[in-house]
């Protein structure tokens, strides 16, 4: 169904909130600015005009929190690993066509950030859309919030945590696609997955966005597209508790909402 305001085809979204840490910790429930991370992501995704429905693939702790606050969307139990959770995401949000996947640890994502990313993907051919952010762009807003960068011919980039995927292509290619999602923060493991030629070009700083995208599409049997984003919030996530003081300081400087 098209969104009334933009005229775009609205898509289903799934928030991946299955991350649990030892000692009973659950990262999506860590607070930034007085609100759990998952709450911030849900608010952003739900309020984006091009998103027609939102489901959550949740750990037991997150599912309990959503029940306590009376969240009315669909909730599916997260699997023991990423492939199993992606299978759950397909079950609750992948009925057909494209779907939006969002990590639950993005403290600064907003409805506008979600809408701009969906808008860039809309109207383009492709099965798998992955945002990257240039280092300068990221550090202008989020200096101190750690990221891993890969140096390409066009510059240094870090990967994002929003994805637009064709549900059918994801279902067919899940055993391969899940490796990209699991290894997205390890440039060397990604390069090894994509081949030694890619690794050599990476070492020599000759690897281009187009080259790695074409090779990824070939290896994973999907039509992939890399989106160079001007919204660094797509990449600003919380990896560990040591990131929380930095995120709190940044949140204190940003407008509410």
Describe, in plain words, how this protein is organized in 3D.
The chain has 257 residues and is of the alpha/beta class. It has a single domain, classed as Spore Coat Polysaccharide Biosynthesis Protein SpsA, Chain A, CATH 3.90.550.10. It contains 10 helices and 11 strands. The chain has helices spanning 37-47, 60-69, 82-93, 111-121, 135-142, 167-183, 187-194, 196-203, 209-220, 244-253; strands at 11-17, 31-32, 35-36, 51-58, 74-77, 98-103, 128-134, 150-152, 155-159, 162-166, 224-228. The strands form 2 sheets. Strands 1, 4, 5, 6, 7, 8, 9, 10 and 11 form a 9-stranded mixed β-sheet that branches. Strands 2-3 form a two-stranded antiparallel ribbon. A hairpin with a 2-residue loop joins strand 8 and strand 9. Helix 1 crosses helix 4 (111-121) and helix 3 (82-93) runs antiparallel to helix 6. The longest helix has 17 residues, at 167-183. It is globular, with a radius of gyration of 17 Å.
Write a short abstract of this structure.
The protein is α/β, with parallel strands linked by helices and 257 residues long. 42% of the residues lie in helices and 21% in strands.
CATH class: Alpha Beta
The number of helical segments is 10
Major sheet size, sense and barrel closure: 9 strands, mixed
SS content category:
alpha/beta
Could you tell me the CATH topology label.
Spore Coat Polysaccharide Biosynthesis Protein SpsA, Chain A
- Superfamily (CATH H level) name: Spore Coat Polysaccharide Biosynthesis Protein SpsA, Chain A
Amino-to-carboxy terminus distance: 27 Å
* Level-2 CATH architecture: Alpha-Beta Complex
Kindly estimate the percentage of residues that lie in beta strands according to DSSP: 15-25%
Q: How big is the Rg?
A: 17 Å
List the uncertain runs. Answer: 1-7
- What is the oligomeric state here? single chain
Q: How many extended strands?
A: 11
Overall shape: globular
**Topology as a string of helices (H) and strands (E):** EEEHEHEHEHEHEEEHHHHEH
Mean of all residue-level pLDDT scores: 86
Number of domains: 1
The percent of residues in helical segments reads 40-55%
């Amino acid at each position: 169904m098209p969104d009334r305001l933009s005229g775009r085809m609205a898509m289903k979204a799934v928030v991946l909130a299955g991350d649990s840490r030892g000692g009973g910790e659950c990262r999506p429930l860590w607070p930034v600015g007085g609100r759990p991370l998952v709450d911030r992501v849900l608010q952003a995704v739900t309020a984006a005009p091009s998103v027609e429905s939102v489901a959550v693939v949740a750990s037991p702790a997150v599912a309990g929190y959503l029940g306590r606050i009376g969240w009315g969307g669909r909730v599916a139990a997260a699997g023991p690993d990423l492939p199993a959770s992606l299978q759950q995401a397909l079950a609750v949000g992948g009925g057909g066509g494209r779907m939006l996947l969002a990590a639950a640890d993005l403290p600064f994502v907003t409805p506008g950030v979600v809408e701009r990313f969906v808008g860039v993907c809309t109207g383009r051919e492709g099965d798998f859309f992955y945002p990257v952010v240039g280092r300068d762009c990221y550090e202008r807003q989020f200096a101190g919030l750690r990221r891993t960068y890969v140096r390409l011919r066009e510059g240094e980039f870090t990967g994002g945590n929003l994805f637009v995927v064709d549900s059918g292509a994801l279902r067919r290619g899940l055993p391969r696609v899940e490796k990209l999602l699991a290894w997205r923060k390890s440039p060397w493991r990604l390069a090894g997955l994509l081949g030694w030629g890619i690794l050599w070009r990476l070492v020599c700083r000759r690897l281009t966005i187009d080259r790695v995208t074409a090779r990824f599409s070939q290896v994973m049997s999907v039509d992939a597209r890399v989106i160079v984003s001007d919204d660094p919030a797509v990449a600003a996530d919380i990896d560990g508790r040591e990131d929380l003081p930095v995120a709190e300081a940044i949140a204190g400087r940003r407008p509410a909402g």
